[in-house]
Amino acid sequence: xxxxxxxxxxxxxxxxxxxxxxxEEATKTAFIIPFISTVLGYDATDPREVIPEYTxxxxxxxxxxxxxxxxxxxxxxxxxxxxxxxxPLSIDHAKQLIRYFNATDTEFAILTNGEVxxxxxxxxxxxxxxxxxxxxxxxSNIDPRVLPYLEMCTKxxxxxxxxxxxxxxxxxxxxxxxxxxxxxxxxxxxxxxxIASKITSKRMTAQNLEAFTTLVATASSQLLKDEAxxxxxxxxxxxxxPTTAMPEQPSQASTADTTxxxxxxxxxxxxxxxxxxxxxxxxxxxxxxxxxxxxxxxVVIRDAKSYCAILYQDNNRKPIARLYFxxxxxxxxxxxxxxxxxxxxLNVVADxxxxxxxxxxxxxxxx
Length: 367
Known about the structure:
Blueprint: H1 3-17, H2 24-39, E1 50-55, E2 65-72, E3 75-82, H3 95-103, E4 108-112, E5 116-120, E6 135-138, H4 147-151, H5 160-185, H6 189-199, H7 206-240, E7 257-259, H8 277-290, E8 299-303, E9 308-312, E10 319-324, E11 331-335, E12 340-345, H9 356-365
Parallel strand pairs: 3-4
Antiparallel strand pairs: 1-2, 2-3, 4-5, 5-6, 7-12, 8-9, 9-10, 10-11, 11-12
Helix pairs in contact: 1-2, 6-7
């Protein structure tokens, strides 16, 4: 079962059982232990891997426990602190987790209420747990873009250096998004002054600052609405396109093989190419899969009008895959060592995980 399928299955269970779960112990049994076993891939029945109620005396603190410790041999991988389903998560309410994190050789910790899973690292200081998570998995609102990073935390894919490298990027991206969101919703005086300095030479008196604050807020709102409308129009165009305009494509169960020459690029100064969120998501998944074989920086996206190409080392003679998302049924074409493209239908972008072996084999062929 892929990481996306495991998460979706658990999310459905949480939605179904959440109203009747009333205690922390029930939360652990119903949701958190399945997360450890089916998502992260550890044997929750093996005390060598998953230790419930882990106890370690720390200084004058005796007999304190953290809910779960996950180990591989003698090495700690995760410490997990659990709360009851529905209870807000706050690092202030996880003092044991912080103390244990600082006292053991673990590099990662998870704070969860069974529905939301916050992943912590030690990016700010060595042997000291960060105050903010680098990744959050919310089963009530799954963001498929984080699934490649979650897969790196599973037992079979675990590599602390890779997780740490990506954790830093994720943490900064999350903080930047929060900052930008705040600027768009309630622009600060500093943000308004910065914007105004780019478009006017007026001095920012109190009166001008007030006027430009309104203008920036209005422009931000219109920008977001325009982008939403553009996406809706784009989706409507796809839905309204006649089915006869596209030749019938084979199903996923019966893939088609197409022998190709090196990737053809579509050029033009104003070519109207727009790289969509779905294409970026697909690229992120492919890069996460391939980084077990090659450096993540060697997996590069290059968009075109009729497809989105994923290339090795940004070389159009070394295609890894193509994403065909501009149609009702999205597809992925994966190349083999002979540059033959094998086509597969996708129900959702996360279905790309099901072709991990083919993608890894393709990048291996370049080595």
